[in-house]
Structure formats: structure tokens, C-alpha cells
Design a protein that fits this description.
The chain is of the alpha+beta class. The protein has four domains: about 30-40 and about 265-345, Beta Barrel (conserved putative lor/sdh protein from methanococcus maripaludis s2 fold); about 45-55 and about 180-265, Efflux pump adaptor protein, beta barrel domain (Elongation Factor Tu (Ef-tu), domain 3); about 65-85 and about 150-180, Beta Barrel (OB fold (Dihydrolipoamide Acetyltransferase, E2P)), CATH 2.40.50; about 90-150, Helix hairpin bin (Helix Hairpins), CATH 1.10.287.470. The chain has four helices and 25 strands. The chain has helices spanning about 1-20, 90-120, 125-150, 195-200, and strands at about 30, 35, 35-40, 40-55, 55-60, 65-70, 75-80, 85, 150-155, 160-165, 170, 175-180, 185-195, 205-210, 220, 220-225, 235-240, 255-265, 270-275, 280, 285-290, 295-305, 310-315, 325, 340. The protein has a seven-stranded antiparallel beta sheet with strand order 15-14-18-4-13-17-16. It has a six-stranded antiparallel beta sheet with strand order 3-19-23-22-21-20, with no helix packed on it. Strands 5-12-10-7 form a four-stranded antiparallel beta sheet, with no helix packed on it. Helix 2 (about 90-120) runs antiparallel to helix 3. The longest helix has 29 residues, at about 90-120. It is elongated, with a radius of gyration of 42 Å. It starts with a helix and ends in a 13-residue tail after the last strand. The relative contact order is 0.19.
Length: about 350
């Protein structure tokens, strides 16, 4: 009986040892990931500037005479086409009426000459002389019409009165400024750049404005154009647009500081979450994930500084499309296969779901 039991045990051992066991599956380490963000090194230069109205004009009459009505005062707002002031039109009205009467009389005479010319009863020379005379009188009549219209000073755009230089009853000459107007809701910044700065305008990276009223706030600007012709001071005007912001009052005439940032021609830097960088001996490293095999391999970087935002500024052989392990780096080994975690959505705060 003992022999039979011993044989059964031996057979069971042999059967078990010959059975092939399946290999254990490799456990994938879940990891958070990020991509390096390019940081172009920049330097900045500041320039004192003033806010200027983009639309600003000194309005004047095209004809001389005494001001009969001044319909606006400094600070008044107006709409395009509004009547702002008038010159006494009496003399211009009389001249217009006389020119109109002369034109109408000559026109009637000329029409008769034209009719007779068509019938061959008036010579060609007399006909042409009548036509030329009518054109001269008509031109004079139109000029008096324009002069009468020019006794009215009309707003060229929506805006506000900045200054008035004359009062009613005062006599002004043609072309003499009477009212200064501007659009206070449409302003710009004009900076006068030195030649060295102008030659680098293709390297401009960013622009912003700091005002004395909002010293801790940056107002973004957009470069509209840079003039390639220097002014009398040897400087190159650059024009910047600024959009009105509802919670800030910016007005033409305010003093401000324009800051222009330039890109430097140096090696490109990158920012990463600080926990993505770890030490391997004396060398700073990051784990880069191979997108095909999902395995990690170390890449050396130079750590320049840790910023207050919690990001590390690094230099190295990185690409913006690289997938970098951003947390748990000390638990990984070279060549280890990992499973990148999906990014938390805006409705899944803290990646809790």
C-alpha cells in the first residue's frame, strides 16, 4: 500500500512540473505628464510717451469774416455733421444772389444763341464765345455757392471740443483755427524710436503700457506701423493701438511709459513643472516618454532656476512636443513602461473622477 501511495505522489509531482506557467504581466506605472513650454529670452526698453487722440483736428473757416454764432464750448460733445459755428453770411448771401441772377440771365441768352446756331443763323465764333462766357459765369456762381456753404463750420467726426480760440463777433481770417476737437474714445500711443531700436523692430516681442494712474497694471498694445523716415530729431515714430478697457479711465494727454520687449538671439529655454526635474548623480534629468513604446528614458537638462510660480526654467535638448513625466519621477527606472494619465477636465477639478 505504501508503494502505491509513493508512486501516485511521484506522478503528481512530475505532472505539475511539466505544466507551463503563463508569464506575469508587467505592471504599468500611471504617471502625470506635461510638455515643455518654449521661453524665448527677452530684454525690455521703456520710453516715456503720452496718450494721443487718433482723430484730432483744428477746425477753421475757408472764408474770412466775423463769427456770428459759436454753438459749442470747451468740453462739449458733438456728433459728425453737427453745426459748431458760423460766420456772418450777409455779404456772402448778397454776392451769391448777384452771381445767381447774372448766371440765369446769361444762361437764357446763351440758350437762344445755341438755338439760332442749330438753325445756321449764328456764326461759329459767336456761338463758341457765348458758351465760354456762360462757363465762366457758372464757375463764378458755383464759387459763391461754396463760399456761402463755407460760412458754416461742421463737425468732421464724433468727438469733444478741446479748445475754442475765438468768441462771437470776433473777425477771423480764412484758415485760422477756431475750434480744436478730438475723439476721446479713440486714442493711440506714439513713440519716437532711436535708429538702433528701429533697426530691430522685426525682433519686437511684446508691448505694453504703464500709466501713472495705474502703476501696477499693464495695458496690452498692438503695433500699427513704424515710420521708415526719421523726423527732424532723427527719430522714427512708431504708432501703437490701445483698446479701451471698461474698468480703466485712459484719456488723451495722460503721461505713460511704453515698454517694448525684444527677443534675444540666445539658446531657447523651456519651462516645466519643478517636480519634473530630478537629480541623477550630479546631473539634472527629466523622464521623456517614448510615444510608441510608452517607456521612459532620461534626458539631461540644465536647471537655471525655480520660479515663484512653481515652474523650473531649464535648458537642454528638448522639443515642445516631448511628453515629460511631471510627478512621481523618483519611482521610475530607465526603460520602465508607464501609463500617462489623462489630463483633468475643467468640470473634473482636482482629477477626482
Amino acid at each position: 500500500m505504501k508503494k502505491i501511495l509513493l508512486c501516485l505522489i511521484c506522478m503528481l509531482v512530475l505532472t505539475t512540473s511539466c505544466t507551463e506557467r503563463p508569464p506575469a504581466e508587467e505592471s504599468l506605472q500611471p504617471v502625470k505628464t506635461t510638455s515643455p513650454e518654449v521661453r524665448h529670452p527677452v530684454v525690455s526698453h521703456s520710453y516715456p510717451v503720452r496718450l494721443e487722440a487718433r482723430k484730432e483736428a483744428r477746425l477753421s473757416f475757408r472764408v474770412p469774416g466775423p463769427i456770428s454764432r459759436l454753438l459749442v464750448e470747451e468740453g462739449d460733445y458733438f456728433r459728425q455733421g453737427d453745426l459748431l459755428a458760423t460766420i456772418d453770411p450777409r455779404d456772402y448771401q448778397l454776392q451769391l444772389e448777384a452771381a445767381e441772377e447774372q448766371y440765369n440771365m446769361l444762361k437764357s441768352t446763351t440758350e437762344r444763341i445755341i438755338s439760332l446756331h442749330e438753325k445756321g443763323r449764328v456764326s461759329e465764333d459767336e456761338y463758341e464765345k457765348a458758351i465760354a462766357t456762360l462757363k465762366q459765369v457758372e464757375s463764378k456762381y458755383r464759387a459763391h455757392q461754396n463760399a456761402m456753404e463755407d460760412t458754416r463750420l461742421v463737425a468732421p467726426f464724433d468727438g469733444q471740443v478741446i479748445n475754442t480760440f475765438f468768441s462771437e463777433k470776433e473777425v477771423v481770417d480764412a484758415g485760422m483755427p477756431v475750434i480744436s476737437v478730438a475723439d476721446p474714445d479713440d486714442y493711440q500711443i506714439v513713440a519716437h524710436l532711436a535708429a538702433g531700436t528701429y533697426l530691430r523692430h522685426e525682433e519686437f516681442h511684446d508691448f505694453y503700457l504703464i500709466t501713472t494712474h495705474y502703476p501696477d497694471r499693464r495695458f496690452p498694445l498692438e503695433l500699427r506701423t513704424v515710420t521708415s523716415q526719421a523726423n527732424t530729431n532723427g527719430l522714427y515714430p512708431a504708432f501703437f493701438d490701445i483698446s479701451p478697457e471698461p474698468d480703466a479711465v485712459l484719456l488723451p494727454g495722460m503721461n505713460a511709459e511704453l515698454v517694448i520687449e525684444f527677443r534675444e538671439h540666445v539658446e531657447v529655454l523651456f519651462t516645466l513643472p519643478a517636480p519634473a526635474v530630478f537629480k541623477q548623480g550630479e546631473q539634472n534629468m527629466v523622464w521623456v516618454i517614448d510615444p510608441e513604446t510608452q517607456r521612459v528614458y532620461g534626458k539631461a537638462v540644465e536647471l537655471l532656476r525655480i520660479e515663484s510660480s512653481g515652474y523650473a526654467l531649464v535648458k537642454g535638448d528638448l522639443q515642445p512636443e516631448d511628453i515629460i513625466v511631471s510627478a512621481g519621477v523618483h519611482a521610475l527606472e530607465e526603460g520602465q513602461q508607464v501609463e500617462p494619465l489623462p489630463e483633468a477636465s475643467e468640470t473634473n477639478i482636482g482629477n477626482m473622477m
